[in-house]
Amino acid sequence: MTAILYPVAADAQAALDAPLGRAARERQAGAVAGEAVRFVTEPFGPAFATREAALDAYAGRLDDDRPGRRFVAPAEDRFCLLRETVDGRAQAPVKPVYKQGRRWPEPPPPPKTLWRLHVSYWRPRSAEPQVEAPQARSARRGAAQAADPDLLRRIARQPLRPVKPQQPLDIGLFEARLPEAPHIVVPDE
């Protein structure tokens, strides 16, 4: 079976237009980039109201199963994917109404869906976006208003950092220090 050759690039635009090279595995991608890489999948380009409009915009990059326009991308070039996303926020939960023998109100209309291209590629570590986001606990304390979704995504993607250095471990409830050697902790019965 042929492996997908993912582009090695700094961003999704470069992955589609002019990648540094292509690689199936992380080690190969690292050799192409000359440094450590990370595999990422990002949305790219505008969102389309219909699948047909998205397939027309990205003709030749995606598999197309429509009659008269059939296209099957080679196995090595399947690093682009068309995904359906929800437009807007999630709907709020509804409360029971208990009217005219019905417990629940009529359901709201389903949310509008959009089609968007997602590109998977190897990104060199030097090209990683350097976004400094506050720690979650300080953002929650200081935010009187609701945080924007981009800030929440950045907070969720950053590594955990300690607020202060870790304190030495305490002794347990059923442990005691020896009087003659206080640096030794033994189980207490």
Structural overview:
The protein has helices at residues 12-17, 26-33, 51-57, 136-142, 149-157, and strands at residues 6-8, 21-23, 37-48, 80-86, 113-124, 175-177, 185-187. The protein has 189 residues and is α+β, with helices and mostly antiparallel strands. The strands form three sheets. A three-stranded antiparallel β-sheet has the order 3-5-4. The chain starts with 5 loop residues before the first strand and ends with a strand.
Order of helices and strands: EHEHEHEEHHEE
Tell me, rounded to a whole number, the average pLDDT: 84
Poorly predicted runs of 5 or more residues: none
Distance from first to last alpha carbon: 63 Å
Radius of gyration: 26 Å
Shape: flat
| Number of β-strand runs | 7
Report strand order across the widest sheet: 3-5-4
The portion of residues forming beta strands comes to 15-25%
Give the fraction of residues assigned to helices.
10-25%
Q: Please, how many helices?
A: 5
Query: Structural class per helix/strand content?
Result: alpha+beta
Task: Report the biggest beta sheet as strand number plus sense, adding barrel if it closes.
Answer: 3 strands, antiparallel
Quick summary:
The protein has 189 residues and is an alpha+beta fold. Helices cover 20% and strands 23% of the residues.
From the structure above, extract its key features.
single chain; 189 residues; alpha+beta; two-stranded antiparallel sheet; 5 helices; 7 strands
Topology of this structure?
Elements: E1 6-8, H1 12-17, E2 21-23, H2 26-33, E3 37-48, H3 51-57, E4 80-86, E5 113-124, H4 136-142, H5 149-157, E6 175-177, E7 185-187
